[in-house]
Amino acid sequence: MKNCFIGAAIGAMIATGLHAEEVLPTNVAFNDGAIEQSLSGAPGDPNNGRIIVGDKGQGNCVACHEVTDLADVPFHGEIGPMLDGAGDRWSEAELRGIVANAKIMFEGSMMPSFYKTEGFIRPGNAYTGEAADDTFGPLLSAQQIEDVVAYLVTLKEE
Amino acid sequence: MKKLTGAILATVFTTTLASAEPVDDTLILNEETPIVTRTAAPAHLSDALDEVLSGWLFRGTETRAMQSDDFDNPGMIFVEQAMEAWETADGTAGKSCSSCHNEIESMAGVKPTYPKWDENAGSVQTLQMQMNECRTERMGAEAWGYDKGPAINMEAALSSVSRGMPVNVAIDGPAQSAWEQGKELYYTRTGQLELSCANCHEDNYGNMIRADHLSQGQINGFPVYRLKNTKLNGAHSRFKGCIRDTRAETYAPGSDEFIALELYVASRGNGLSVEGPSIRN
Fold it and tell me: Where are the alpha helices (DSSP H) in chain B?
């Protein structure tokens, strides 16, 4: 019985490509809204982060935020603050916390929680309108969060 | 070179800013019927909004112009189809709508009060449900599918003869519990994006969300002809699309939840003119 359980757990780890150092969405430790340690256990790639922030199918952050550095991406929203200078205003740990779950830093924020898998009302299966199934995962993976954070850190006001 | 970029940036900036606000424009239908597209918020909404605004004010110049003249409004083609259906007998009783109601113009004033409490049914009914009640109980005809072509076209025809009249749905008395349920749904943050109707349409109307200019999400203009799918669209189908976009499991058109939500959203537009069929993106 016990063995069976561990087997299943390992199976799940392989299926999701989980590294030993990766922090699960349900295990994230927030400190005043910030997250000190890397969620993937690896450093982020700012170039990929830049793509994720602008890509409709990934972070789609520009749906709500304007970013001057991403002027090549059309249609920036104006729901949240402009992200220019976010790297001056916030530390890396704070940015990680904001992207993973902004509602801890900003109570009641409209910003979606990108690294959260529990506590939703009527969660769906992506944009199908159907109920979520067992493929349900966070909006961004641990490594994608790290990449986005690595990019946000570079957004400095000259 | 530097200067040039500055000038370009300035233009981009002003266009964005200009689009951020609802336009200052008035809608006169066919040069004769004034349409109220902005008015004081109804009392039940006064702690949330000062003014209620039709979605018309958030659309581009051409789209707005198209709606001001029935000859330019593609939604009217579907209204004409429904006008024909109005006169055409259907079902085992051999009756048409006109057998009981005469000219469709006699329906002026009906659309503004729906959804409303129906004593016999013991529930709040939408206009489409009322139409289907006539079809199944008085005509011996089959019910039309919710928000499907024949139903939505007839709803648009019924709306067209009430254009210019103020939306005026009752929210008290026996309708109150459905209204409360609709309100609850309006403020519930659903789906993986945890967004409520209010997040977008109350807190952020006038703002851009990516390429979309957020309106107050009013339904005084429904059914709407959408340039996107070139047909008439019902309010429940719009609700479904908006909820799906929060990465949520939606409700079905015609469901109790959407009936309640329609009553509540309609009540947020009490005082705006009936506008359907309107034109939207």
Answer: 2-20, 61-67, 75-87, 97-101, 127-133, 149-160, 176-187, 197-201, 235-244, 256-268
For residue A81, say if its preceding peptide bond is cis, omega within 30 degrees of 0: no
DSSP state of B26: -
Q: Could you tell me which residues come within 8 angstroms of residue B114 by beta carbon, excluding any fewer than 6 positions away? A: B125, B126, B127, B130, B169, B266
Cα angle A82-A88-A94, degrees, rounded to a multiple of 5: 85
Question: Which positions of B are catalytic?
Answer: 242
Longest dimension (CA), chain A: 60
Distance of CA A59 to the CA centre of its chain: 8
* Mean pLDDT across A19-40: 93
CA pair distance B27, B57, nearest whole angstrom:
9
Which is it for the CA torsion B270, B272, B274, B278, positive or negative?
negative
- Output the six-digit token pair for A88: 């001056």
Give the SS3 label for residue A2.
Answer: helix
CB–CB of B204/B197 below 8 Å? no
| Cα(B135)–Cα(B154) distance, integer angstroms | 12
- For chain B, say whether A63 makes contact (Cβ under 8 Å): yes
Cα–Cα distance, B259 to B143 (Å, whole number): 17
State which amino acid sits at residue B178: A
Q: What is the pLDDT of residues B50-89, one digit of tens each?
A: 999 999 999 999 999 999 999 999 999 999 999 999 999 9
- Work out the minimum CA distance from A104 to partner chain B, whole angstroms: 14
Closest by CA to B144, choosing from B132, B155, B156, B133, is B132
A129 at interface of B, judged by CB pairs closer than 8 A: yes
Token pair recorded at residue B201: 């349409």
Q: Does residue A56 contact residue A77 with C-beta atoms inside 8 Å?
A: no
Q: What are the residues whose beta carbons fall under 8 Å from the beta carbon of A110, sequence distance 6 or more? A: A64, A79, A80, B195, B199, B203, B204
Length of chain B (residues)? 281
Q: Are A69 and A140 in contact (CB under 8 A)?
A: no
A65: contact with B, CB 8 A cutoff: no
Cross-strand bridge partners of residue A123: B248
The end-to-end CA distance of chain A, in Å, is: 60
Predicted ipTM of the assembly: 0.90
Residues of B in contact with A123 (CB under 8 A): 191-192, 247-249
